[in-house]
Amino acid sequence: MEVELSLICREHASVSVVIPCFRCADSIVRAVESIASQTLLPLEVILVDDCSRDGTVNVLFELQARYGASWLKVCALPDNGGPGTARNAGWKLAQGKYVAFLDSDDSWHPQKIELQYTWMVEHPDVILTSHFVTMSDGCQKNIVGDIAPPLRVSRQQLLISNRFPTSTVMVQRNIEQRFADGQRYCEDYRLWLHVCFFVGECYRFDQALAYNYKAVYGATGLSGRLWEMEKGELASYWSLYRAGGISFWGVTLWSSLSFVKFMRRVLLVHFFARAQ
Fold first, then answer.
1. Residue 141 pLDDT greater than 80, yes or no
2. pLDDT for 145-154, tens place per residue?
3. What pTM value is reported for the model?
4. Lesser CB count within 10 Å: N end or C end of the chain?
5. What is the span of the domain harbouring residue 229?
6. Which of 186, 212, 238 is the last residue of a domain?
7. Number of domains present in the structure of the chain
8. In the chain, where does DSSP find H-type helix?
């Protein structure tokens, strides 16, 4: 009750935070605590259980009891549809002017919402902003004084690589585009491409305001399934082509470059595996 009252009394930003949850009982508490520690609180947090069936949903309801149902909402999906489907479900429930995404095994710098939201309110024509992410939260340092304004990410820059890790993105809630239901890999990249090409300008801050706790390309888990991720990236390019964003020669070029990068990643993973 004390935690809930303290949240009610603090200033809130018109931001809905959406977290897809799948078998994340060991990490979701850290993620939610990083949101509750924000210098400017979001309007609400929406936890979407993607049919975990392992007790995760019980942890989510425990968090709801701790922080209050008016601020932390739990949505339990009947079937497992992947992170994109779960994010869409949370997005549909969102009430804030902006939606920010956080993965259940990541966390945020305490000033993340304050810095990102304030800038977006001052620049209402910007559709999406992002920032850098770094490993672990280490020793979090307060950001004092003015920060460098974010830089615009061009279409070509985004085609070269995904500049927007999902846990760094804040986007206007009322855009029509959504994550591709059923696509389990690079579904975020596909959405950012469509936003950048068909909706409006996207910017990225130079600060690292999010933290992850596992290597981007590992030997296990979702990050280790390099071929599945490559297929998801290729599907994103072809989706953009079918929507009229790039030409046939363009999708051929970017797909070829993507495959070259994929082969390089595979070689690096095998190299480090043998070195260990």
1. no
2. 678 899 999 9
3. 0.91
4. C
5. 222-275
6. 212
7. 2
8. 2-8, 28-36, 56-67, 83-93, 112-122, 155-160, 187-198, 226-242, 248-275
